[in-house]
Amino acid sequence: MHTSALVLFSGGQDSTTCLAQALSKYERVETVAFDYGQRHVVELEARLNVLREIKARFPHWAHKLGEDHLLDLAVLGQVSDTSLTRDVAFRMESSGLPNTFVPGRNLLFLTLAAALAYRRDLQVLVTGVCETDFSGYPDCRDDTIKAMQLALSLGMDKRFLIETPLMWIDKADTWRLAHSLGGQDLVELIVEHTHTCYLGDRTHRQPWGYGCGKCPACELRARGYERYAAALKA
């Protein structure tokens, strides 16, 4: 039986939903984030607000929520020439992938998270990667995650479980999952305090939260919220 988890927690909608699910399942939950020189570094500030609000609004989860970790991964920004780490416009590359793809990002995240979990004696790694409603990132695929789970377990001689609660659901279902876990309070927390916008825009308030409303992350979040809200009214 697994009793503890480390959630890869950026402070966005997806990782907040994953954190809520982990808190509903496990006795001890810790969080980890990575500073890799991302343009939307404001997410690292937003995540602290999310953690504070979860503790305040959900006292039955608060005692389970343990230490938060922030790891410096500046080297990833140094080797990546992408629109998330450089001031360039969003576009599709000749590879067929958007230039928001940061090569190796999730592989490095999971490796460092596993090393931290090893030291902290945490059994489960939780990440919000998704193969259903995503931009084609190869390191978000289910096969990639399964391969990482095997490699990390063998390489550290510790049986890790990597959970991907969002792998086969779309953004509308992610909103629904949040509602099922924490009701309207959690939905409102996600709207008001999480951050997804690639441009780091915290000035424009949309029905689904703060963001420019035009970048790929905002468009995906907006479409999901619209479908979720429409279903509630039906």
Automatic annotation (TrEMBL):
Listed Gene3D superfamilies: HUPs
UniProt entry keywords in alphabetical sequence: ATP-binding, Ligase, Metal-binding, Nucleotide-binding, Queuosine biosynthesis, Zinc
Record: residues binding ATP: 9-19
Phosphoprotein as UniProt keyword: no
Keyword flag Zinc: yes
Catalytic activity, EC: 6.3.4.20
GO molecular function terms noted in the UniProt entry: ligase activity
Cofactor: record remark: Binds 1 zinc ion per subunit.
Pathway listed: Purine metabolism; 7-cyano-7-deazaguanine biosynthesis
SUPFAM superfamilies: Adenine nucleotide alpha hydrolases-like
Reactions the enzyme catalyzes: 7-carboxy-7-carbaguanine + NH4(+) + 2 ATP = 7-cyano-7-carbaguanine + 2 AMP + 2 diphosphate + 2 H(+)
Enzymatic class: ligase
Superkingdom to which the source organism belongs: Bacteria
Listed cofactors: Zn(2+)
Chain sites annotated for binding Zn(2+): 197, 212, 215, 218
InterPro entries from the UniProt entry: QueC (IPR018317), Rossmann-like_a/b/a_fold (IPR014729)
CDD domains the UniProt entry points to: QueC-like
Family assignment from sequence similarity: Belongs to the QueC family.
Function: Catalyzes the ATP-dependent conversion of 7-carboxy-7-deazaguanine (CDG) to 7-cyano-7-deazaguanine (preQ(0)).
NCBIfam families cross-referenced by the UniProt entry: 7-cyano-7-deazaguanine synthase QueC (TIGR00364)
Name under which the protein is recorded: 7-cyano-7-deazaguanine synthase
Origin species: Polaromonas aquatica
Lineage of the species this protein comes from: Bacteria, Pseudomonadati, Pseudomonadota, Betaproteobacteria, Burkholderiales
Gene that produces this protein: queC
